[in-house]
Amino acid sequence: MQIGKELKKLRLELRLSQTEMVGDILTKSYYSKIERGLHEINAKDLIEILERNRVNISDFFQGIESKGKSKKYLEQLRNAYYEQNLSKIVEIRKICATDYQYRNVYAHALLLENFFKKNKLSCKEEAMIKKLILNIDEWGEDNLRLFAMAISLFDESEIEYELNMILRKYKEIDKASRKIQEILGGIMVNYLNIMFLKHDRNFEMISKLRNFLYKLPVEPRTIFCKVMADYYGYLFNEEKLEAKKILDFFERHGMESITTYIAF
């Protein structure tokens, strides 16, 4: 329920407890269930809560509407990536460049554009994206995707701190949603690639990441991540002949666009 999520986000921004947020309008127990999407909130109570906290009602609903547009733009960006449609990526980046409410979409588009153009982000752009990620309160699908794309912008200590948090949070990865599983698998594969390119031989972290990938459910959508766990195992153990067999398999099956960016 989008309104509950938006109320929680607003409350955290205002640095209020649930009791402070609602006063005597609702019980803390009932309001807590609204934030968690277990109960609906009627229009009268919602307006009273917003007025109590001096929040413009129109701005609140405009924020919800912008979330819907953000989802649409992010879906278009994902399609453009798979279709290698750079012009669409640039179009969305330009649309979102000057509107703060689409900053997450803008960051996605900027990273994708520079990826395809093989350009380096400016210091200002890097700082903006890092700040956006480090200020994230809730790691939903879109924010995890952004982190997966921007992971190379962070230093090792920052990345490993976040990854250890993720590994603890998703210890039982088989219980996470399919999309979360896919995104987290991408993050782990991406960082293994970065570690190899940077000659980082932190074998404890390498083992954690590979074990995480092996714990993903055995399904067609996760097979790539599991194969990549084997691939980086071969690379870090200097078994390049075995690693090359995996790359050759990908190329024989028309996956050259992927193998171009895999370390060897």
UniProtKB/TrEMBL annotation:
GO molecular function, one term: DNA binding
Protein name (Swiss-Prot/TrEMBL): HTH cro/C1-type domain-containing protein
Domain (HTH cro/C1-type): residue spans on this chain: 7-60
InterPro entries, alphabetized: Cro/C1-type_HTH, HTH-type_regulator_Rgg, Lambda_DNA-bd_dom_sf
Parts forming coiled coils: none
Pfam families (UniProt xref): HTH_3 (PF01381)
